[in-house]
Amino acid sequence: MSKTVFILAASALLLSATMLSAQNTVREACMPDIRKYCSAELGSFSRENVRACLIKNIKQTSPACQAAAKARRDAERAKKKGS
Questions:
Q1: For residue 9, what pLDDT is reported?
Q2: What is the mean pLDDT of each run of 10 residues along the chain (83 residues)?
Q3: Sign of CA dihedral 36, 72, 62, 25
Q4: CA 83 to chain centre
Q5: Most CB within 10 Å of its CB: which of 15, 30, 40, 75?
Q6: Which residues of 5-41 are buried (b: 16+ CB within 10 A; e: fewer)?
Q7: Is the pTM of this model over 0.70?
Q8: Are 26 and 68 spatial neighbours (Cβ–Cβ below 8 Å)?
Q9: For residues 38 and 69, is the Cβ–Cβ distance under 8 A?
């Protein structure tokens, strides 16, 4: 039983690390696009507003930003599925 608990805890830790890494990747890949399309939301200091704006404009963003956003979405889905 302790092996199972360890595996579940390790999995949760890895998913959390994956989410943080995906968030940082999106920030790095998308910052030029965020500045271009979402400058008003960026000035509000609201992550949710910036994220909503980025999603709204995702088709206009760079391929790198789109790939990073997709990876983040996939990581979020994996975390929800694992919960």
A1: 45
A2: 46 46 79 94 90 94 95 87 71
A3: positive
A4: 17
A5: 30
A6: eeeeeeeeeebeebeeebeebbeebbeebbeebbeeb
A7: no
A8: yes
A9: no
Q: Return all residues near 15 (Cβ < 8 A) that are at least 6 apart.
A: 75, 78, 79, 82
Amino acid occupying residue 61: T
Where residue 62 falls (left for φ over 0; alpha for ψ -120 to 50; beta otherwise) is beta
**Rg, Å, the chain Cα set:** 15
Domain boundaries, the chain: 2-82
